[in-house]
Amino acid sequence: MGKRDSWVAYMNPIAMARTRGPIQSSGPTWEEVKAQLEKKKKGSKALAEFEEKMNENWKKELEKHREKLLSGSESSSKKRQRKKKEKKKSGRYR
Questions:
Q1: Of 1, 2, 48, 91, which is most buried by a Cβ count within 10 Å?
Q2: What is the pLDDT of residue 2?
Q3: Coil, helix or strand for 26?
Q4: Which residues, other chains included, contact 28 with Cβ-Cβ below 8 Å and sequence gap of 6+?
Q5: Which is more confident, 61 or 94?
Q6: Rounded to the nearest 5 degrees, what angle is found at the Cα of 13, between the Cα atoms of 12 and 14?
Q7: 30 three-class SS
Q8: Per-residue pLDDT averaged across 64-85, rounded?
């Protein structure tokens, strides 16, 4: 009798799942997904205005940077030439 005390009946997992019935889907319905996509496409007016303002600011920054580079390119090329001359002079005495 001692052996039968620890005995456990085998439960078929597939049969157990069938007895529970069909699985309930926990995800959103197709209509809910469509509504969410529509909201994303529309966006908000505040966000659109913010993006436009940022684009304008970015364009202004780019223009300033370009002007600096164009005006500073002459002086930077002179600096490069000076450095090259200094290197040549220091190399002669070695």
A1: 48
A2: 59
A3: coil
A4: 36
A5: 61
A6: 95
A7: helix
A8: 77
Which tokens is 58 given? 């970015």
> Is 38 or 75 the better-scoring residue by pLDDT?
38
Tokens of 64: 């300033």
Structure token pair of residue 35: 């509504």
Q: 């001359």: which residue's tokens?
A: 85
Which residue type does 46 have?
A
Within 10 Å of residue 82's Cβ, how many Cβ atoms? Answer: 10
Q: What is the DSSP string of 2-19?
A: HHHHT------HHHHHHH
Output the pTM of the full model.
0.33
- As given in the structure block, the two tokens for residue 62 are 């780019």
Please report the DSSP string for 42-91 in residue order.
H--HHHHHHHHHHHHHHHHHHHHHHHHHHHHHHHHHHHHHHHHHHHHHHH
